[in-house]
Amino acid sequence: MQLTAPATHRTGVRDTDGMAVASFILGLLGLLVLNVFLGPIAIVLASVALWRGTARRGRAFLGLGLGVADLLVLVAFMQADSTVSWSF
User: Fold this and answer.
1) pLDDT, position 70
2) Cα–Cα distances in Å, from 31 out to 16, 51, 60?
3) pTM of the predicted model as reported, rounded to 2 decimal places
4) Which of 54, 59, 63, 75 is deepest in the core (most CB within 10 A)?
5) What is the pLDDT of residues 30-56, one digit of tens each?
6) Which residues contact 22 (CB under 8 A, 6 or more apart)?
7) What's the rounded Cα separation, in Å, for the pair 25 and 60?
8) Three-state SS annotation for the chain
9) What is the share, in percent, of the chain residues with pLDDT greater than 90?
């Protein structure tokens, strides 16, 4: 007895589009808070979305760039404060 409908090709495309959007949002949020966690997650989600062939390639590339920027911001603030984390 099957309770859910089988996955279709459209479901897979929608999932990869969602990953691209999620990577963009997490990368953007990572510039403000928790960049040590959100940056790598944004990079992974964007990479998987691009690898699976998302229709939202621009959003995935933005998520990838923002994820990298999150880590660069973290490194810059760590160098400035000489600590493992940063605060205002």
Assistant:
1) 92
2) 23, 24, 16
3) 0.78
4) 63
5) 988 888 899 999 999 999 999 998 888
6) 45, 63
7) 10
8) CCCCCCCCHHHHHHHHHHHHHHHHHHHHHHCCCCHHHHHHHHHHHHHHHHHHCCCCHHHHHHHHHHHHHHHHHHHHHHHHHCCCCCCC
9) 48
